[in-house]
Structures are given as structure tokens and as C-alpha cells.
Amino acid sequence: MTETETFSSKQGNQTCLLLSAALRFSIPYTSRQNKTENQLVNVPVSPDVKVSGHCNSTVLQDLTLYFYNSWKLRFVFVSTSSTGGSPGSSILGYTLDNVTLTYEENPLIFYNSYTTTTGPVRTVSSKSFETPLKATANGHYHCDSTMEITFTDGVKLEVKDLRFQAFRRSESGDFSGDVSTCDALSQKQRHYTVYVIVALGVVAIIAIIVVVGVMAMKKRKRNSYQHME
């Protein structure tokens, strides 16, 4: 993967959107051997990527990355407010709502593709995230582990060290405010809890088998004593 890169969108002299990550796609395609394979494609870093964004709305904002001539990666952020986004309402927080990729199958990138010409433009979008990627108002989100976002048509996006901040107004280009982190640790803890429960269940079953076996053995011994008498 490429190094972590910070992308930003400005409105005047103020930075309104920040996103930092290392991004790599896994995109299925048909190879020359007529098999479905996956091509790894890195999202490049500056100066090979252009950035635009829309920050006028207090309900929805987006950040779009342009690269490889016709490729476009769009991140959409949606806010939650005290009165449903009506004028004058205060923002309570926001989430990364969806991610969309527009791309074309270029043989310079898909080097083993069955076609030697550039394919049609395709658009895929992210499915629902396993856990909400959200932050509080005036704060930012950070996940220092690597996550995988699943798109339609089997496309996957590997995201390393994701950090973002939307709905902000600051001349500084640095992330600020409270930090909302991913629950990678809690997921591990949940998995550990499942393992412990399964292990305890196995131990309990073994204990029951042993107790039943001992009781059966004692019963056979009593029966043998009675026959001897």
C-alpha cells in the first residue's frame, strides 16, 4: 500500500473537510485465461491525485478524489442535528455515510485483462458498514487498524489508518477536537468472549461425561457385589 496521505477541501481560507488514510482497492475482472481474478489498485498520493469537495450544507458534505484520468472516489458525510437539520439547528455529530468508486478497466492497470482496450465506466458503492464510522460535532474519527469496506460487484477497499473530520471551519489543516475511535479492540474482546464460552461449554460436557461414567462404574460394582453375595 501507499503511505498515508491527507486530503482536504477548503472553502475560502478555511479547511472544511479532512480525510487521511492509505487506500487500496481489490477489483475483480476477467483475465486472458477467462478466469475471474482480482487486481490490487492503490489510490495514489499527491501530486497524482486531485481533490474537490462540497461544504456548503450542514446536512451532507462530500470529498472526492480524482486519479488515473477517469477514476473518482467519493466520500459522503451526513450530520445528525438537534432538530433534524432545520435552519439554525446545531450539529450533534456526523457519520461517513457511503463511499462510491467510478472507474474503468484500463489494460495499463488490469494488465492481464482479456481485452486490450479500455472498458466501460463502472460505478460501485459501499454496502452498509459493519460498525458506524461516526464522530461528534467539532471532533474527528480515527481508526489506526486496517479495515475492509465491501462494495457492490465484489469490489473491496482496504483502508489503513483512517482519520476524517467533516463539518468544520478552521484555518488549520490539522485534525482537532474529540477523537472517536473504531471498536477494533471491542471486536477482539467479543471474539475472545465467544472463545471462552465455547471452551467452558466443552469443559462442561467433558465433566458431565466423566461424572456419568463414574456413576455407571460404581453402579456396575454394586451389582457385581450383590451377585457375589
TrEMBL record:
This is Lysosome-associated membrane glycoprotein 5. Keywords: Cell projection, Cytoplasmic vesicle, Endosome, Glycoprotein, Membrane, Signal, Synapse, Transmembrane, Transmembrane helix. It is a single-pass type I membrane protein. It comes from Magallana gigas. Plays a role in short-term synaptic plasticity in a subset of GABAergic neurons in the brain. The chain crosses the membrane at residues 192-216. PANTHER family: LYSOSOME-ASSOCIATED MEMBRANE GLYCOPROTEIN (PTHR11506), LYSOSOME-ASSOCIATED MEMBRANE GLYCOPROTEIN 5 (PTHR11506:SF35). It is found in: Cell projection, Dendrite; Cell projection, Growth cone membrane; Cytoplasmic vesicle, Secretory vesicle, Synaptic vesicle membrane; Early endosome membrane.
